[in-house]
Amino acid sequence: MKKLALSSTICFTFVLTGCVAGGDVYDADDINTTQGSRTVQILNVSPAKIKQNSNEAKAIGTGIGAVVGGLLGNKMSGVDSKLSGTVVGAGVGGVGGYAGGAIASSTTVDGVTITYQEGSQLLSTTQVGKTCQFKEGTALMVITQKGETRIQPNATCTAR
After folding, report:
1. Is the pLDDT of residue 52 over 80?
2. Which of 39, 61, 78, 91 stands the most exposed, by the fewest C-beta atoms within 10 Å?
3. Greatest distance between any 2 Cα atoms in the chain
4. Of residues 30 and 133, more confidently modeled
């Protein structure tokens, strides 16, 4: 029981912190496939904060809460143990969902808003990254199979 609760907490934390990927991080579906790419001219880079997806966190929290609640309910004894287990499972699941949503809605990651020119169009995109990874000038934009555009870093952050 303790091992399950600990592993569930670790998994939950990993999913919350790993929900948002940078412009140079790809899903397994996107590797070893041909993707469109073109160059763009970066005109401006501004810092941004990106809020985690609270719907995913609520679902994960509810799932973990239901598992823990079911295990707790299973350990209960008495005539109404099935009913008690259901009530405990529902209660803990609800609390898990609420906690997951609260944690994610207050969690942000560093991002950048990049204003760029493509042909005669002035466009912008916001993605995970650090401002030091981008500079004004030419950069490569990759278009994934899902149609996401990802401007690749064209600068290197120096260690402090």
Report:
1. no
2. 78
3. 74
4. 133
In which residue are the tokens 């899902």 written?
Answer: 146
Reading the block at residue 25, the tokens are 């991080």
pLDDT higher at 151 or 108: 151
Task: Quote the CA–CA distance of 160 and 144 in Å, as a whole number.
Answer: 33
Mean pLDDT of 86-97: 65
- Look at 10 and 132; give whichever has higher pLDDT: 132
What number of helices (H) and strands (E) belong to the chain?
Answer: 3, 5
Q: Which two tokens stand for residue 86?
A: 């259901």
Query: pLDDT tens digits for 60-73?
Result: 666 666 666 666 66
Beta strands 137-143 and 149-151 are: antiparallel
Taking the C-alpha atoms of residue 45 and residue 108, their distance in angstroms, rounded to an integer, is: 19
Domain locations along the chain: 21-50+110-160
Residue 119 structure tokens: 């042909």
**What is the dihedral angle through the alpha carbons of 16, 18, 20, 21, rounded to the nearest 10 degrees?**
180
Tell me how far apart the alpha carbons of residues 68 and 107 are, in angstroms, rounded to a whole number: 24
In sequence order, the β-bridge partners of residue 143 are 36, 149
pTM, to two decimals: 0.55
Provide CB contacts within 8 A for 160, sequence distance 6+.
Answer: none
